[in-house]
DNA sequence: ACACTTCCTTCCTACGGCGAACGAATTAAA
DNA sequence: TTTAATTCGTTCGCCGTAGGAAGGAAGTGT
């Protein structure tokens, strides 16, 4: 566990093919939750004889729990096996400007423990101390760590990236990985949200989607063919820089589009329309205002037009099929979403659904879970027969 | 070969793992071209004992050719094995408005035979007759067929898609696949070009790229993480529909952007600037004119600005790292490409290279070769250890 | 000519997958 | 209640493949 980086033997198979079967059983069980060995034979294609010892191992390791016999029409009843989500834990670490928040979740995305730590010393140290503490005696079940950082991760513009060390995702990830001995993924928070909605939210049923996140800036997360795509330098989804608005002027690190149409920019206009304190959700406030104030309605329509041009641009480039509105954009009401859908449909060659994201704050967590679980299974894509 | 769709046995391995080793040896040999068994042990991780019979088989099947002994510093000289590109043939079929052109190529992309057939009867029939004829006695080595069709393939807008039957890629592909018994891929010509440049052209050294093809319309091909990405409905890269130009008006099947900045549109302006016949290459003509005529120089700059906005849009969404100019855009001279590069760099958060595609007409062919070869290896992604 | 090095092959063993037979646990029928 | 029928799960044993070890092959250097 400490040294041997490259096991000099085991080139292709034998040990490997065993692992493949293990993983195929685990992932099947994770999906179905409660099943019998007989169902496993059908779903994985493995023979019963192969499954018997394998399932025995998995029960011993806590992945599966033997439940009572299930219903049977005729013949011996199936002995049901339940997947134990607690057998695999995942840590999701979110880097925020002055603190880090850390959550331990099981493979369902259910939070087992969480804590926020003020950022004092070295980030890597803090993470490597907090995660084991928080995991407690579940530490051996830890399968991966996902670290969410704001801004562009590897290279690219340094946008919203707080202070030192965070810009380079690699060093942090590698250090933590060495210290904790489990796979670590570092990514943009928006990318994690996209992964989360894809794994457990409004994108579960599709392989391609675009998540548009409107906050202080505007960013997009991209899922194509079932995977988050980051582009060559990790700057995919930097849609705030789109040259859609001749009037928009970007400045260091802020793109021309997001300078005019981000949540901040909208908040300023909303305050001008309805003087007072800046509302918590400028978009929701604007939608409410628009019902009575024609000027607000006009401005809302401007916003929707701007966002629709943004969406149309993305759709023309990658054809995601579905666009999820996240952050401030998720505060739109049904009528406004419909309006946006209409604007997009009119301008785009391919049919595209526009809807709200559903996970909200928990999207990052679910994304982290899905990253960490797939990192554990990395390198072993399915060789199974289609059922 | 005719019936058995799902082999009821063979769930995961045994037969499979043997095939994996075969393919790993073949693909290694394809890259290295001339190597010994000893090098194969290093590169594939397979033991010499495993390789001996495997290599024997491959020699018998014609994949490898035994050459004389290689140089040796000390000890027994290595018996060199040469990869035989002719062992795997590929057919590339290009559907054009009134004819189909068909090429047989080896796995280097070297054309072994080609022919153009006027389209008379059924397309599928024509293909299924032409390919075996053209392949001749090389037919058993045929590993795949790639069919390039203009326009959007599965669903999406029907753009440039000639007449009947072509719109739906699936039926044609499946029919041909059934008839010829080899994997068939049907795709957009621009996607194939992108795959070609990625496999054998200006994108060999990168995993992500965007190919911008300017012709009658404007389309882009997208390679992300080493694969062509088509989006949910196959309409990825329909960048002619980008809402970048308030003055652009699209009409049925033509996007607003390409309506103003495609090769056709440019040709009209060039004819206006220099009355006469429409030049073969309007862009090259424009570049030449711009050297002397200030109005032409101004218009060229407009075109470059427009294209740069297009590129910037794509880059913001997917961050390809490299953009290849194809079709009419490849007719720009060095100065114009530099200018374009400058415009892009100024507007984009991530560093992006802009350069010309290098394969020209042969891009589609190379793309077809790469598709067909990877279709043959499909479902068996690398499980090999990193070297 | 001899040792030495490197490459390739053959022999042999160990291990895992899966077919087949068998025991187990229930329902339906006699 | 006994018997048959049915479906599940397990144990046994054959087979095939992988890869270690040892040995032959074909060179180089002294």
Strand content of chain A: 15-25%
Can you tell me the CATH architecture of the largest domain in chain A?
2-Layer Sandwich
Main pleated sheet of chain A: 5 strands, mixed
Total beta-strand segments of chain A? 13
Shape, principal axes of CA atoms of chain A? globular
Q: Give the helices and strands of chain A as they follow along the chain.
A: HEHHEEEEEHEHEHEEEHHHHEHEH
Strand order of the largest sheet of chain A: 6-5-4-7-8
Largest interface: A-B, 68 and 67 residues
| Low-pLDDT stretches of chain A | 1-11, 154-169, 379-387
Q: Which class of secondary structure composition applies to the elements of chain A?
A: alpha/beta
What percent of residues of chain A adopt helix (DSSP H or I)?
A: 40-55%
Protein name (chains A, B): Sugar kinase of the NBD/HSP70 family, may contain an N-terminal HTH domain
Pfam family, one (chains A, B): ROK
Family (chains A, B): Belongs to the ROK (NagC/XylR) family.
Organism (chains A, B): Micromonospora matsumotoense
Q: Can you walk through the features of this model?
A:
By secondary structure, chain A is of the alpha/beta class. Chain A folds into three domains: 15-83, Winged helix-like DNA-binding domain superfamily/Winged helix DNA-binding domain (Arc Repressor Mutant, subunit A, Orthogonal Bundle); 87-194 and 365-376, 2-Layer Sandwich (Nucleotidyltransferase, domain 5); 205-358, Nucleotidyltransferase, domain 5. In chain A, 41% of the residues lie in helices and 19% in strands. Chain A contains twelve helices and 13 strands. Chain A has a five-stranded mixed sheet, sandwiched between helices. The radius of gyration of chain A is 24 Å and the shape is globular. Residues 1-11, 154-169 and 379-387 of chain A have low confidence and may be disordered. Chains A and B meet through helix 1, strand 10 and helix 10 of A and helix 1, strand 10 and helix 10 of B. The structure holds a DNA duplex (30 and 30 nucleotides).
